[in-house]
Amino acid sequence: MSMHSLPVELLNSIAQYLSSSSLAALAQTCSTLCPVAQRVLYCNVLASAWSQNLCVIDTLAKRPHVARFVRSFYIAVDSLAPVFLAYYRQLSKAILNMSELTSLTLLVDSSVSWVLKEASSRIHFPHLLQFTCSFSFDENVARFLDRTPSLVELEVDSIPTASTRSSPPPYLAPTSIPQLEQFIGSSRTAELIVPGRPVRSIHLNGGGLTEDDIPLLARSTVPVIILGVVTNAPPVPFLETLHRHVPQLVYLRLMSTKDIFMAPTTEFYEQVAGILTSFTELNAFELSGMHWGSQAKKNDGTKRVWQSAPLQTRINPEDDLLFD
């Protein structure tokens, strides 16, 4: 039996074990094996200057049938090795051709969000689950999100600039990204995206989140259980506000720049411990880089005892997290 007569599924399984160089050679043998090799070779594309394969964008832009094999696409263009504007035009065409994507990461010049424009006006990305970009949340990104009905993880506007803070936010239809579960980005964008969507995990960069912003995060259609934020507000009142609005947190990471260079007092430890006790589901807490110790309460494993004093050496190792 010749290789050409084998079922396509078997050929695909065999191709999974070949190296990239072997797949490239196999793709040049005949018309039967070429798509088999390309399907595996282009399934996961990672393009970067240090990988010396940025030229793959030209292939994906000029050969749509190859681009449709791509499931995961990652590109990083180093600011120390910028590319020409024409390169981003080719990237725009490549994105348009990669209609079967499940994961898309664009770490490129933050001013070229227009590379999404052509794709978002012509096709949908029904299988896309994860989208990460270095862009601000603008009209181009919003229109692209309109075309990603299955999106679960989103990172956008992670490094907001002064111009994006002052510009009016784009409109995002309430029906867009209805399955979103995880958001990473700025508090400004989170206030637009989280309400009305089933976002369970939120990680906010920058120091713009205030106590007044927390009720908007609580408008997720499901309980927020993972939260990482940076704020200029004092930790104690900020934690109290969090408890009022998102009491079902399981993991909380809080970075407060208020009095960051002052050593915490005993009273401060006790106040924080008292508030943490009110979070009945909380399992892990970190404050400004300090991991807050805890352990399950004796005779009641559903509750935790939280650190209420600075850590000290214990005689009994089992008592390391007993602080009262």
From TrEMBL:
Report the superkingdom from the record. Answer: Eukaryota
Under the heading Pfam families, the entry gives: F-box-like
Tell me where in this chain the F-box domain is found. 1-53
Q: Which InterPro entries match?
A: F-box-like_dom_sf, F-box_dom
Protein name, please? F-box domain-containing protein
Gene source species = Suillus luteus UH-Slu-Lm8-n1
